Amino acid sequence: MNPWLRWYAVTGTLISTLLLLTFKDAFPNSWSNLNPSSPFSLPTKVIVIGKLEHEDTTWVSNDLPDWQNAIYTVDNTSAALHTPVNKGRESIAYLTYIIDNYDLLPDTVLFLHSHRDGEFRAWHVDNEAHDNVESVKALRLDYVEESGYVNLRCGLLPGCNHEVQPFRSPPVDGFEVEHAMHDAWKFMFPEEALPQEIGVPCCAQFAVSKKQVLARPKTDYERYRDWVLETQLHDLTSGRVMEYLWHIIFGKESV
Questions:
Q1: CB–CB of 46/68 below 8 Å?
Q2: Distance from C-alpha of 41 to C-alpha of 10, rounded to nearest angstrom
Q3: Which residues, in sequence order, are bridge partners of residue 164?
């Protein structure tokens, strides 16, 4: 072999090995699913979930084997993949994934709840079986790429109501999310005016493209997570505030 070709081959192997060892911790839950013959291969689509330690999420790998996954345990900091604390419901896991993987994002990120199905727990999943697996299999990745952000809930009932009206007068008693929106918005979007109305289909299950995530700098996501970590709001309220903001974070109008 030509000495130069031999040098390139050896150097290429060393660089590939170094990259492989460097990037392998980016997706610890799913590294074994990557193509070993392609050391530069990174996941093209990843499911991100926040779960409690006792919750069973094996359905993700078992029933959606063509997706890599990053499943964060929110109540055990000794878990292989975990969040700093258990706050803000699913938002702490979603934001932690984006921050930790900002420079290594897949083409499509799908943010899901830990439950697979069930009329009680998964009532908001838009198919007759209330089954997240069916919803994921029906997801059109080309549409995600085109739209940037796609909410997995698109049913007409209850649809997309203009539910949060921060300037409503008089205020609605007990509507803590609406009451909290002024301070939350000021912290997270200091240069933007608070909309008169905010509405989105519930319930914080959505897909985003890599391009759409990168439309904001990493510091924005760090600031959003700081709000979740620092707020004195009840966990349920802070999680609901974030639920009403994801579509805005990812480039959509307030309603």
A1: yes
A2: 19
A3: 198
Measured between alpha carbons, how far is 216 from 141 in angstroms, rounded to an integer? 21
Least Cα distance to 193 among 248, 138, 147 occurs for 248
Report pLDDT for 21.
42
- Whole-angstrom distance, CA of residue 191 vs CA of residue 200: 22
> pTM of the prediction?
0.81
CA atoms within 13 A on the CB side of 31: 12
Q: Which of 89-93, 96-100, 169-173, 236-240 has the lowest mean pLDDT?
A: 169-173
**112-129 per-position pLDDT tens digit:** 999 876 554 544 556 565
pLDDT of residue 149 exceeding 50, the answer is yes
Rounded Cα distance, 160 and 147, in Å: 17
The pLDDT tens digits for 201-214 are 888 999 999 999 99
CA distance 113 to 115: 6
Q: Is the peptide bond prior to 158 cis by the omega test (within 30 degrees of 0)?
A: yes
- Please give the distance of CA 61 from its chain centroid, rounded to a whole number: 17
